[in-house]
C-alpha cells in the first residue's frame, strides 16, 4: 500500500516505510526495506520536491522479486498521484527569483 500527500513545492520529498512483523522475520523485513528504499530513491529522482510518501509493505512483498516490487511500487505511486489531481504542488520553476540591480531579492 502506498499513500501520497502533496506538501509545499519548495520542500524536499520525504518517504517513510512501514514493514511489520507480519511480513516475515528480521532478515526478510530488512530485505524488503532495502528494496523499497531503492525504489523510493528512484522515485525521488522523478519527484525531488513536493511530496510526502508512505509505503506500507504487505506480507506478499516478502515473496516478491525486485522487478515485481518495483513495478508494484511505480504503479501504486502513479495511482496516488492521479488521485491527488489538482492538489499537486506547483512546479518550482514557476516561482520567480528576480533580483534588483544591486543583487538583493525583490519582495
What do these coordinates show?
By secondary structure, the protein is of the alpha+beta class. The protein has a domain at 5-9 and 13-76: 2-Layer Sandwich (Ribosomal Protein S5, domain 2), CATH 3.30.230. Helix content is 37%, strand content 17%. The protein contains two helices and three strands. A three-stranded mixed beta sheet has the order 1-3-2. The model is unreliable at 91-100 (pLDDT under 50).
Secondary structure layout:
Blueprint: E1 2-6, E2 14-19, H1 26-46, E3 51-57, H2 66-84
Parallel strand pairs: 2-3
Antiparallel strand pairs: 1-3
The overall average pLDDT, rounded, is 83
- The CATH architecture assignment of the domain at 5-9 and 13-76 turns out to be 2-Layer Sandwich
Profile the largest sheet.
Answer: 3 strands, mixed
Give the SSE order as H and E letters.
EEHEH
Helix content: 25-40%
Give the helix tally: 2
List keywords for this structure.
Ribosomal Protein S5, domain 2; alpha+beta; 2 helices; 3-stranded mixed beta sheet
Question: TL;DR?
Answer:
The protein has 107 residues and is α+β, with helices and mostly antiparallel strands.
